[in-house]
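Workshop exercise sheet. Pairs work together: one partner reads the sequence aloud, the other fills in the structure field after running the prediction. Swap roles for the next sheet.
Pair: D.N. / O.F.
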Amino acid sequence: PTVITGQTAETSIATDDLILLSDTSASGALKKMTRANFVSGIGGANTPAFSAKSATQQSISNETFTDVDFGTEVFDTDNAFASHLFTVPSGKGGKYYLYAQAGRQVWDSDRFLTRIVRTPSGGVGDEIAVGESAINTSGYHTTETSCIFELTAGDVIKVQVWHNSGSTRNISSGVRTVFQGYKIIE
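Structure field:
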């Protein structure tokens, strides 16, 4: 047998190349495994994944939860985002990271909420994350929220905002008002 005394830089490894492993439970016996078997189950893709932003300023009524319209889709790996809603595709249930933020368009409020709502397939919507701020000076303030949540196929996710500034106000468009998420590799 050839003794390995160092390492050589390898630029490519074929799928059927063998990897040697030392079995410490068998007095250092060597075991062989193909590269394909060694790396199976490693890696993966965080999909479905999506990102959307508001296309225009949107009017939000005082003290009313309002669905945010995300009119510009940045990307959507599984075509699961439509009409400002993300719907978990069939066979794609699991843990998801979700993020939302909304920007105020030069106004103040005692309270401003951005929340993520899940409606299970055939069920009633429930709040799964909420961010709140209270800023009494006029400006371009942004409120955000995020969560990791277990979702199942058919769950519908949306973002809503609420404020108590006393009258209808606009939220910002573009990258100040966004909704994005992805499935976590488990």
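Discussion prompt: The CA atoms of residues 48 and 78 lie 5 Å apart. What would you look at next?
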